[in-house]
Specification:
single chain; 59 residues; mainly alpha; elongated; transmembrane helix; membrane
Length: 59
């Protein structure tokens, strides 16, 4: 497979949409990733707490 050199992003002709995402879109994407990271961290933390205190969890 060869590499493709794509030019910069640009909107279609006659379209009023911006060529690149705005600050609001970038903030929403950052918030989404941070919530995903927080969720993964919490799942791991719960597993560690359950593993560290087996007498407290009647599983």
């Amino acid at each position: 497979m060869g590499t493709h050199s794509y030019g910069p992003a640009r909107a279609a002709s006659g379209c009023r949409a911006p060529a690149s995402p705005g600050a609001g879109t970038k903030l929403l994407t950052a918030a989404q990733w941070s919530l995903a990271a927080l969720g993964i961290f919490c799942v791991i933390a719960v597993a560690v707490v359950i593993a560290a205190t087996p007498e407290a969890w009647p599983l």
